[in-house]
Amino acid sequence: MSIDLKTIKHISKLSRISVDEKKAEKLAGDLNSIFDFIEKLNELKTDNVEPLTSVAETTLKLRSDEVKSKNLRDQVIKNSPKENEDYFVVPKVIE
Amino acid sequence: MSDITKQSLSELVENIKGKKLSSSEVTKAFVERSEKSKELNAYITEDYANALNKAKKFDEKPNLDLKLPGIPMAVKDLFCTKDLRTTAGSKILNNFVPTYESTVTQNIWNEGAILMGKLNCDEFAMGSSNETSFFGNVQNPIDKNLVPGGSSGGSSSAVAAQLTPITIGTDTGGSIRQPASFTGTVGLKPTYGSCSRYGIVAFASSLDQAGPMAQNVKDCALLQEVISTYDEKDSTSIDFKRNEYSKKLTKDIKGKKIGIPKEYRVDGMPKEIEDLWKKGIEYAKDCGAEIIDISLPHTNYALPTYYIVAPAEASSNLARYDGVKYGFRAEGENLIDMYEKTRSEGFGAEVQRRIMIGTYVLSSGYYDAYYLKAQKVRKLIKNDFDEAYKKVDVILTPSTPSSAFKIGEKTNDPVSMYLNDIFTVPVNLAGLPGISIPAGHDAKGYPLGLQIIGKAFDEQNILNIAYAMEEKINFKNNITDWWIK
Is B284 part of any domain? Predict the structure, then answer.
């Protein structure tokens, strides 16, 4: 298979990572060699195999629905690049 | 005592408990050696002044009943430490100061240990040589311009160079065992669910595990019993009966059945690795173990499976870095532009590559062909181990297909870098515990490791076998302090 520049642009959009032409070409080369390597899985027939979603063979524990951490507002906002009082600030969204 | 930093963790604990050494003396010795060793670039963030203060406080009112009384320790910079910068080796977290503590590090401080600083690692633990770190390469103390392995490269370098008596790393595909092997140290990846993932910067959540890295097996066992606790803050933490691993440690492994998987004799494996493996088998026999040939038929499919599962989970986990809530932000013309610039400038090349792979295999139209397929093959790989463990107690393999390589040697070829993890990745996919112990040297004098893989929750057995073999191997690390002027 081959991943072309159009696909790279599409993935880059989905990933929210901007790429210019030069970077897109480099990524296409890298991804193609990685996917050549991944294609090996197609040698295996897996029609009747159950997918493994978790190696931890336990069911999730139930707990009572109660608040355990309170008043975290200052902590939550402490590391934000830009804030105004109690809010995160982002570039203007609505004109 | 001039040779404090040469002592193992167990010796230091004994000397502090016996009041032959104070925490301040020990902490000062490791801080001084760390300060003389900047050229290794093992630390991202130093916290020496606080460490010395904490040691002084400990000495004023020492609690000698603790397991790590006043022991200084630096940890991988993937563990969130309250009020001390935690970067995950990334520009995007360059200024991130956690407001909470990871469970694993909290367990360590609860037993009396003292934080000295945060150790370098590959960016978001994605790498096998520590070369993807935003904070630069780490030097392997074994030789100049040699990689220390990765992703826990700062950790392996710091333990081997005796900048910290012991440390913790994380292992998603080999990130504890491969650097341990490259630096002549011991590294344990515990069973998935043994150590809490709470407060560890996430890479691939179904594979990530924290574990100890040490100079010997006994120290490793002691730290493992401290860090492994059930934690309700991690929904995949498992509530099983944990041992006091160091107390139950024994060299009596007579009659233990050790499996040798034929599929690990990979094409192009250097003869010295093959010889090391044979030597390991002889040592195990000398200890009274029984050797049994086994088959793990899907071994060759483990790396391709890993390179779908891990990037898929990473692309989802790393979606949180958006320049809004914390971390680095690049200004943009609008919200989307800000996101895209932030992530493009904030993540390094390898991380971007893996996010793109992960996004692609999860995207509409490709999910079944890649992600679902990989989950199915992952099941086959786990079945292989389940089948093998009907016949054997543990499995013995080389830790890595080569010794440490030079800085820059593999950076241009991602696939050749990925092949480093060929023997370690299957263990993560199956959620099993594995330990790497130093077992010999190659022609260049670089260390080589052997890996012992156990059944789930059977850390005790692999530690025992490692402990018995360690005595027979009698490995000596050749560290010349070349970086100290």
Answer: no
Report the gap between the CA of B58 and the closest CA in chain A (Å).
Answer: 29
Q: Comparing C-alpha atoms, which of B427, B5, B24, B17 is closest to residue B222?
A: B17
Please give the DSSP secondary-structure letter assigned to residue B79: B
- Helix (H/G/I), strand (E/B), else coil: B109: helix
Judge if B244 and B370 occupy the same domain. Answer: no
Domain limit, last residue, from B340, B375, B410? B375
Closest CA to B233 of A69, A94, A93: A69
Number of domains observed in the structure of chain B: 2
B49 and B128 part of one domain = yes
Q: 3-class SS at B197?
A: coil
- Chain A hits for B380, Cβ within 8 Å: 44, 46, 49
The answer to whether ipTM exceeds 0.90 is yes
Q: Which band of pLDDT confidence, cut at 50, 70 and 90, is reported for residue A53?
A: confident
**Burial (0-12, 13-18, 19+ Cβ within 10 Å), A10:** middle
Nearest to B37 by CA among B81, B92, B74, B88: B74
Residue B25 sits in the same domain as residue B118: yes
**CA dist., res. B287 & res. A83, Å (int):** 63
Question: First and final CA of chain B: distance in angstroms?
Answer: 22
Chain A and chain B share a number of CB contacts under 8 A equal to 161
In a domain, B421, yes or no: no
From chain B, the residues in CB contact with A39 under 8 A are 304
Answer yes or no: is B450 within a domain: no
What global pTM score does this model have?
A: 0.97
CA dist., res. B369 & res. B364, Å (int): 10
Instruction: Choose one of B375, B400, B426: the last residue of a domain.
Output: B375
Nearest to B82 by CA among A86, A70, A78, A83: A78
The answer to whether residue B287 is domain-embedded is no
- Looking at residue B67, its amino acid is K
* Structural domain that includes position B40: 2-257+461-473
Do B88 and B151 belong together in one domain?
A: yes
In this structure, are B72 and B192 located in the same domain? Answer: yes
Do the beta carbons of residue B147 and residue B137 sit within 8 Å?
yes
Torsion of CA B413, A22, B125, B343, to 10 degrees: -170
Q: What is the CATH number of the domain that holds B239?
A: 3.90.1300.10
Q: Residue B97's pLDDT is what?
A: 98
| Active-site hit among B54, B67, B76, B455 | B76
User: Which residues on adjacent β-strands are paired with residue B211?
Assistant: B169
Return the DSSP state at B318: G
CA angle B251, B254, B256 (to 5 degrees): 100
Report DSSP state, residue A82: S
**Spatial distance between the Cα atoms of B90 and B125, rounded to a whole number of angstroms:** 10
Determine contact, residues B396/B259, Cβ cutoff 8 Å.
Answer: yes
Tell whether A22 is within 8 A of chain B (Cβ): no
B231 and B309 co-located in one domain:
no
For B165-205, how does the pLDDT look when each residue is reduced to its tens digit (9 = 90+)?
Answer: 999 999 999 999 999 999 999 999 999 999 999 999 999 99
Picking from A48-62, B72-86, B225-239, B430-444, which range would have the lowest pLDDT averaged per residue?
Answer: A48-62
Given a contact cutoff of 8 angstroms between Cβ atoms, the answer to whether B456 and B427 are in contact is no
